Amino acid sequence: MKRIMVLVGLGILAVCRGQAPLSAEMPRIGDPSFQQSTAAPPLVSWHRSLESGWEESRRRNVPMVIYITTERCTYCDAMKRDTWCDQDVQQDLANGFVAIQLSQQENSATLDRIKVTTYPTTLIGVPQGKIVAHRTGYQPALAIKSLLRDIKGRVLNR
Question: Sorted alphabetically, which keywords does the UniProt record give (predicted)?
Answer without folding.
Answer: Signal
